[in-house]
Amino acid sequence: MKAVDAGRAAGRRTGSAIAVVVVAAIVAFGAQWTPARTPVSDMTPALWAEDIGWLQRHLDRKYPRVAQAVDPASLDGEFAGLVSLLPELSNLRVVMELARIVALLGDGHTSVQLHDPPLALPRLPLSLYFYGEELRVNFADRSLEHLVGARVDAIAGYAIPDLAARLTPYIAGDNAHEVAHALPMLLATPAVLEALELAPSAERLTLDLTRLDGVRDAVSVAPLPPGRSIERVFARPDGDDAPLYVRHADRHYWFEPIARNRAVYVKLNVVNDQRSEPSIRSTAADIQRLVVEQTWQRMIFDLRHNTGGNFHRADPLVRVAREFAESDPGRQVFVLVSRHTYSAAMVTAMRLKAEAGAAIVGEVPRGRPNFTYNKETVNLPQSGIAVDYTDEFRTVVEQFGHGPTIALDLEVAQTFDDYRMGLDPVLEAVLVAQPVSQLAPRTVN
């Protein structure tokens, strides 16, 4: 792509020369500071040049150099290359190239926010999900109920692997597992595909599908209008028949005994207290009172839908888990993780492993251990676009090191058939698991 090539070429210059290029471009475009925000659709090259220069300086001051996956000179070269191409790019393409440049930092906490205000790019009224290499419609609005469960073979005429190759550079992530988490959202955002010249219009997308009955179809779908919600129809059982791991999605945390397996199941969706609900500390005390009886042999923490919070808030749960494990050598603690598990949830999983001897089971998470924390958000001065970034590099649990991800004690993959039938192979694996000491890293399909 032209923007990418230009950025790489500019990256070969020295950092000082690049800084001069960016400043000169801003002057040439006549950019001046104005407190008023400009809609992205009305942005000019001069205003974009000011935003780009401001973001470049801000990241240079605030972002921890030890965490950068790209050297500063190369990053400056990317910014300079983008400035040089501003007259040729659409406004949304500029946004996408900013997203690509920020993604070079290799940090899932640091990214351009495409789906939050002021951009808030609309998405199709359905949810896509990868099962291995297969992309499925997990749920959709009732108006698209006939699409639920279908396999998506192509979008806008492009096969899914081709789209994945084109879109991956625009995804900010700690490791490669971020792609499975974030790519479905980009694929369901028509404006993103149009900006990258992968779709003819942001008004609709054509999906080539194979439905559950085997019938192939091409369906044109429009994005959800702003302010409108959807009535979800799931491919899996719902309501009273829904599997345990998707129940009470509106609650930050809850627990339930599974008496037949002598297990206590704790679902932690957000690592933070929830207003109008008992605190995490109070909930941990309730769990502690329950497990005083020696009949309970397993304590299971499910963090599969947990994308973060404040990891200090998990202290009472970690303490309960540690005391549970120490009270009887036959007791076991498990942590269930997935591609969604991130940030404070990653720290909580690591602490449960380090302090309570928990076995980590499920899918490799998208977060790096002992990496960046303390996410901040800034708005670019002219466009107002939100950019998340981190300004701190921290080692929380030393034993996990600084590799790309954490090792699993048992890897368990959920298939689409599992999802469709309401089965939870990850939970079932720990309900019948061997002692933690006998688990070896392996995959259960």
Rg, rounded, reads: 24 Å
* Fraction of residues in helix: 25-40%
Structural class computed from helices and strand pairing: alpha/beta
Strand fraction: 15-25%
Reading the helices and strands in chain order gives HHHHHEEEEEHHHEEEEEHEHEHEEEEHHE
General form? globular
Largest sheet: 7 strands, mixed
Uncertain segments of ≥5 residues (pLDDT<50)? Answer: 1-35, 440-445
Find the count of extended strands (DSSP E, 2+ residues): 17
Task: Tell me what you see in this structure.
Helix 2 runs parallel beside helix 4, helix 9 (280-290) runs parallel beside helix 10 and helix 10 packs parallel to helix 11. The strands form 4 sheets. This protein has a 7-stranded mixed beta sheet with strand order 9-10-11-12-13-16-17, sandwiched between helices. The protein has a 4-stranded antiparallel beta sheet with strand order 5-4-6-7. It is globular. Helices cover 32% and strands 19% of the residues. By secondary structure, the protein is α/β, with parallel strands linked by helices.
